[in-house]
Write a structure and sequence with these properties.
CATH topology: TIM Barrel
Oligomer: single chain
Strand content: 5-15%
CATH architecture: Alpha-Beta Barrel
Largest sheet: 7 strands, parallel
Order of helices and strands: EHHHEHEHEHEHEHEHEHHEHH
CATH superfamily: Metal-dependent hydrolases
CATH class: Alpha Beta
Distance between the termini: 25 Å
Number of strands: 9
Number of domains: 1
Structural class: alpha/beta
């Protein structure tokens, strides 16, 4: 079944992890066998080959570069200008992948429909993977003019914050609102009809954003606080608010977000019993809140700073997402529901937003 993945850090893996995603997953792992600079070395799950094998034909592909102030202990860039330059380097990588036929950028409904027609065709040649540019954390937007420039480059979704306090909002593990800068950013996002990604907003920033912003929004990779009690997840009240606004929520596969009591560096997916069944638990929770299967999808975040050591035990590569339809069917979801979850909900959202 065709899959839309609403969150993959492809350029980060290529430019910061130095992974050639045109290689197979196995070849990338072999290259990293002796590397110890990151805990996920040799444990990656994503490559273009694996995406094609899993029929993952479209993804939201990120630019990400956090600006951190002098007193911050978070990793990041020491000035917003450096952060901006980093996102431009990531964009250059996406463009290079387009030039060799691995990727194709999607920026409007016509391009979306043409790409879907291509992937639904019986063509035997290697099909480029469609990517829609997303910015995770807005700290690299030095001025609102930079947001306009990013839009011209193809940016179609943006999350105001990532981890910690940001320039425009407060993110995961921080407390605070959006302030005047955040409100001005939201106005410009609405003017440009960019999708607001509410993922990572802390509770206070989330609710202030809901009051200040009436444009298109979703959560690209966000799980349920009712199942894992941490501020990174959304409460039922937040999920219901997103449902009321006709949003779609992508379920992530970072195991600490999937089950409670995960201890980074100590817990293992096998010992904690984390499989794709747990992903279905989060999907089902949102469907029960909504009363339908129209507001949830897939936003894996695979290889988003973690690998197999922090992914469901039954995921070897991203191609294993094709196990999901059968798991959903066994839970009582019909074919239409399953198609909605696997790709239709996010595609319907884009067609409506870009009409």
């Amino acid at each position: 079944m065709f899959i839309f993945d609403a969150h993959l850090d492809l350029a980060m893996n290529a430019m910061e992890w130095n992974r050639d995603l045109s290689w197979s997953v196995e070849d990338i792992r072999a290259k990293e066998t002796e590397m110890t600079d990151k805990p996920d070395r040799g444990k990656n799950t994503v490559s273009f080959d694996a995406m094609r094998k899993g029929n993952i034909g479209i993804c939201m592909a990120t630019q990400i570069a956090r600006f951190v102030k002098k007193d911050s202990h978070l990793p990041g860039w020491n000035s917003p200008h450096q952060a901006w330059a980093q996102t431009q380097g990531q964009l250059a990588w996406y463009r290079t992948m387009e030039a060799i036929g691995e990727l194709t950028q999607i920026t409007n409904k016509e391009e979306l429909n043409r790409h879907l027609d291509l992937w639904n065709s019986p063509a035997k040649h290697k099909k480029p993977i469609g990517y829609i540019l997303s910015l995770e954390g807005a700290d690299s937007i030095i001025t609102l003019d930079h947001l306009e420039k990013s839009y011209q480059q193809g940016l179609r979704a943006i999350g105001p914050a990532h981890y910690g306090p940001g320039t425009y909002a407060h993110g995961t593990n921080s407390i605070g609102g959006i302030g005047n800068k955040g409100k001005e950013l939201l106005k410009e996002i609405a003017r440009l009809n960019i999708i607001l990604d509410t993922t990572h907003l802390c509770d206070e920033s989330f609710w202030e954003t809901m009051k200040a912003y009436q444009g298109p929004l979703w959560a690209s990779h966000n799980n349920c606080r009712a199942l894992v009690n941490h501020n990174r997840q959304f409460s039922d009240e937040q999920i219901i608010e997103l449902i009321k606004r006709d949003a779609v929520i992508g379920i992530a596969l970072d195991t600490w977000m999937m089950v409670p009591n995960w201890v980074r560096g100590k817990s293992t997916p096998e010992a904690m019993g984390v499989t794709l069944e747990i992903m279905v638990d989060h999907i089902d929770h949102i469907c029960q809140l909504a009363g339908n299967a129209l507001h949830v999808g897939i936003g894996t975040d695979l290889d988003g700073g973690f690998g197999k050591e922090q992914s469901p035990a039954d995921i070897d590569t991203i191609a294993d997402l094709q196990k999901l339809p059968d798991l959903l069917h066994k839970r009582g979801y019909n074919t239409g529901d399953i198609e909605n979850i696997m790709h239709v909900n996010f595609i319907r959202f884009l067609r409506k937003t870009w009409s």
